[in-house]
């Protein structure tokens, strides 16, 4: 397994098969373990998430100058131009490098079109996209967004390889002034196993150990828990690579393929339990005893 956590502006914390190293590096250079099984995918994922973080910062810098960049979806959760821009950007970049690997992601273009913001997203993506042979069009952006939509690919019941993207996890954090945390999360699933994960944290300027407990709780409160695969995939590999454990309340691994057709919904029994590995069984016992009362 391989995971990279990017933080602003140019730091990286990386884990390879459980071994972590921290380094300061220039914005265009990251060191990778070329012996890692999915090295190429990790290298690409780090690059596209870094670009996505730049897009987020660009959008946020002008966010409060106009109301048109902040919308509300049918479930009353906020969504911004950055959500659509990140999904389009990452979809375009990954499709160039790995055209056979589908994308499972949160947004779709219909909502964007209904708000007449396609040109705004196009401009943001164009500013952060790597070199392209032809000028990017609005249709290119819309198609890229929908490449991650629920109708873009039919998986069937067999194990599959696919990317999972949460364009902005923690939208309330993104919308707050100051340095509230939010994440761009990208993971690669191969035959039911999360093998690569990259978290881009544009507002993460110091170690979490330096944060007060209130700030950390506020950060986690802003992260969703809707039962969708993009809300959990990157977090799961982060915890695993740090030596922790993630299961449902019965101790079973989170089944990413339970929604066989779309690979978009997870149904953990009771909820998702995240601990260090030492405490996990004890907490499962407490949950079991409590449920019998």
UniProtKB/TrEMBL annotation:
<keyword id="KW-0479">Metal-binding</keyword>
<feature type="binding site">
    <location>
        <position position="168"/>
    </location>
    <ligand>
        <name>Mg(2+)</name>
    </ligand>
</feature>
<dbReference type="GO" id="GO:0008441">
    <property type="term" value="F:3'(2'),5'-bisphosphate nucleotidase activity"/>
</dbReference>
<dbReference type="GO" id="GO:0000103">
    <property type="term" value="P:sulfate assimilation"/>
</dbReference>
<feature type="binding site">
    <location>
        <position position="169"/>
    </location>
    <ligand>
        <name>Mg(2+)</name>
    </ligand>
</feature>
<dbReference type="InterPro" id="IPR051090">
    <property type="entry name" value="Inositol_monoP_superfamily"/>
</dbReference>
<keyword id="KW-0378">Hydrolase</keyword>
<protein>
    <submittedName>
        <fullName>Putative PAP-specific phosphatase, mitochondrial</fullName>
    </submittedName>
</protein>
<dbReference type="Pfam" id="PF00459">
    <property type="entry name" value="Inositol_P"/>
</dbReference>
<comment type="similarity">
    <text>Belongs to the inositol monophosphatase superfamily.</text>
</comment>
<dbReference type="GO" id="GO:0046872">
    <property type="term" value="F:metal ion binding"/>
</dbReference>
<feature type="binding site">
    <location>
        <position position="106"/>
    </location>
    <ligand>
        <name>Mg(2+)</name>
    </ligand>
</feature>
<keyword id="KW-0460">Magnesium</keyword>
<dbReference type="InterPro" id="IPR000760">
    <property type="entry name" value="Inositol_monophosphatase-like"/>
</dbReference>
């Amino acid at each position: 397994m391989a995971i990279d956590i990017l933080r602003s502006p140019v730091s990286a914390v990386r884990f390879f098969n459980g071994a972590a190293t921290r380094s300061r590096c220039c914005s265009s250079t990251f060191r990778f373990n070329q012996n890692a099984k999915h090295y190429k995918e990790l290298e690409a994922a780090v690059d596209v998430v870094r670009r996505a973080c730049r897009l987020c910062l660009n959008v946020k810098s002008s966010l409060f100058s106009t109301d048109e960049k902040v919308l509300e979806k049918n479930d009353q959760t906020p969504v911004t131009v950055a959500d659509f821009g990140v999904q389009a950007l990452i979809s375009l970049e990954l499709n160039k490098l790995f055209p056979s690997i589908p994308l499972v992601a949160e947004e779709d273009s219909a909502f964007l079109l209904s708000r007449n913001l396609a040109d705004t997203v196009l401009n943001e993506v164009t500013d952060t996209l790597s070199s392209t042979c032809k000028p990017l069009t609005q249709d290119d952006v819309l198609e890229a967004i929908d490449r991650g939509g629920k109708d873009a690919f039919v998986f069937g019941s067999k194990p599959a390889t696919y990317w999972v993207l949460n364009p902005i996890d923690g939208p309330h954090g993104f919308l707050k002034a100051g340095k509230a945390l939010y994440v761009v999360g990208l993971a690669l699933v191969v035959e039911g196993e999360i093998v690569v994960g990259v978290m881009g944290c544009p507002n993460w300027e110091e170690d979490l150990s330096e944060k007060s407990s209130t700030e950390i709780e506020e950060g986690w409160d802003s992260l969703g828990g809707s039962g969708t695969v993009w809300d959990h995939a990157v977090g799961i590999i982060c915890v695993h690579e740090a030596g922790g454990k993630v299961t449902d309340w019965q101790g079973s691994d989170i089944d990413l393929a339970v929604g066989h057709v779309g690979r978009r919904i997870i149904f953990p029994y009771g909820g998702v339990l995240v601990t260090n590995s030492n405490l996990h069984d004890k907490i499962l016992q407490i949950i079991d005893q409590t449920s019998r009362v």
